[in-house]
Write a structure and sequence with these properties.
With 166 residues, the protein is of the alpha+beta class. It has helices spanning 18-22, 26-36, 50-56, 66-74, 88-96, 109-113, 128-138, 152-155, 158-164, and strands at 9-16, 39-46, 78-86, 122-124. 41% of the residues lie in helices and 17% in strands.
């Protein structure tokens, strides 16, 4: 749920990390989000710069693994996506699972495909504020798209559909 606990339509940033790319999990991950009922509103493959990674992971800047994390994330391109839906931020966090693949719930992406805390395949925004910041780091406004999903009337109930228009 959102911080104020009322459901609302939000966008969230997702990165498939270099290990997810190497593992051939791009299609599987996109498919899981699509099947859930989330809407893809932006996607691109990108080599993140050191400046972008420093900004992206600013909350970890004093952690001992900060340098290794940035080096790993710059070692190959990532697949960056923006997904939209009601409460998309917490919904996507649930789909990806907790940080360590060894501890993540079975059925989540990390829980089903990961064995590592460092190489945990995927990143997703942890809050609406983080989502806004992260989306701005990687996407220009003209790389994000607003459109009606043909499936939304079977994914959401009438009351919920009103939230998509707000
Ligand atoms: P994520 O939660 O997306 O964002 C921070 C990332 O730091 C995390 O995924 C892991 O990829 C990485 N990470 C977390 N803990 C460690 C650790 N102990 N050593 C190295 N990397 C870590």
């Amino acid at each position: 749920m959102s911080k104020d606990s009322s459901p609302k339509t939000t966008r969230t940033a997702v990165l498939v990390k270099p290990d997810g790319l190497q593992r051939g999990l791009i299609g599987e991950i996109i498919s899981r989000f699509e099947r859930k009922g989330l809407k893809l509103v932006g996607v691109k493959m990108v080599s993140m710069t050191d400046a972008q990674l420093t900004e992206w992971y600013h909350e970890h800047k004093d952690k001992p693994f900060f340098g290794d994390l940035k080096e790993f994330m710059a070692s190959l391109p990532v697949v960056a996506m923006v997904w939209e839906g009601i409460d998309a931020v917490p919904v996507v966090r649930k789909l990806i699972g907790t940080t360590s693949g060894r501890e993540a719930e079975a059925g989540s992406i990390r829980g089903d495909f990961g064995m590592s805390k460092q190489y945990n395949l995927i990143h997703a925004s942890s809050s609406a504020e983080d989502a806004k910041r992260e989306i701005e780091i990687l996407f220009n406004v003209d790389e994000l798209f607003s459109y009606r999903s043909a499936l939304e009337t079977v994914i959401y109930a009438e009351e919920e559909l009103k939230l998509l228009e707000e």
